[in-house]
Design goal:
It is built from 7 helices and 7 strands; from the N terminus they run βαβαβαβαβαβααβ. With about 250 residues, the chain is of the alpha/beta class.
């Protein structure tokens, strides 16, 4: 059974892989023997993460990219292929958020969130698919959110990006299933690591409401989310495509 989840020597590219959930995903794949290419807009964080992994003799390289720029998305995939000859798994994890009421959302905030979260995921997936389709195999994994399927106050642009992402998954999966490329998403609930743009004060009404709405009554630890990515990147999920896996302490079920 362990062979089902084997990702040894798989070439895995992670957009948004230098901090938080992305870093935890990177560490999990690296510990499992995968070859990693990490993309991030923050050079200092990227250098720190790659150095930490290399210190454990793990195969990892980093590239500074801004996934809101289509050309940077292409550059990340081409760097992966030029380094390792191919790409097995593409993880579109880069994301940002700004929590505020819909009536207060500014145009530049809307554009920034949609450009990073949705546009960036689409073009990273698209460019990765061009190589995967030639080989007739590959797994593309997008990081969605419970906000893509539930109305959560304060998250209008973020929710729009994640809802759109869910439909990208279904559509791409339908187009490429017969050609060997699988497309799925992981939809995290509340994580004990706060992403960029989010206030982590547990005493705010927003945070209290979030925990009250989560049946497990707590945020998930980073290590509790990475298993879904390993599953979707391995042969254990060879008959899974077009799916969104909710890792959310029961939020989606409640």
């Amino acid at each position: 059974m362990n062979n089902l989840f084997d990702v040894t020597k798989k070439v895995v590219c992670i957009a948004g892989g230098s901090r938080g959930l992305g870093k935890a995903i990177a560490e999990s794949f690296a510990d499992s023997g995968a070859k990693l290419i990490l993309g991030s807009w923050d050079k200092n964080e990227l250098d720190t993460t790659t150095e930490q992994l290399k210190a454990k003799d793990q195969s990892v390289e980093g590239l500074v990219v801004d996934v809101s720029n289509k050309n940077d998305c292409e550059k990340l995939i081409e760097f992966t292929v030029s380094t390792h000859g191919h790409i097995d798994v593409m993880i579109c994890n880069a994301g940002i958020d700004i929590i505020k009421p819909a009536e207060d959302c500014k145009e530049d905030e809307w554009d920034k969130i949609l450009d990073v979260n949705l546009k960036g995921a689409f073009f990273c997936a698209q460019f990765a698919s061009l190589h995967m389709l030639q080989r007739g195999k590959g797994s593309i994994i997008l990081t969605s959110s419970i906000a893509g399927a539930h109305g959560i106050p304060g998250l209008t642009p973020y929710a729009a990006s994640k809802g759109g992402m869910n439909m990208i998954v279904k559509t791409m999966a339908s187009e490429w299933a017969s050609r060997g490329v699988r497309v799925n998403a992981v939809a995290p609930g509340y994580i004990d690591n706060i992403m960029a743009g989010v206030d982590g004060n547990e005493e705010t009404e927003y945070q209290k409401r979030a925990m009250a709405r989560t049946p497990m009554g707590r945020r998930g630890s980073l290590h509790e989310f990475v298993g879904a990515y390993i599953f979707l990147g391995s042969d254990a999920s060879s008959y899974v495509t077009g799916s969104t896996i909710y890792v959310d302490g029961g939020y989606h079920a409640a």
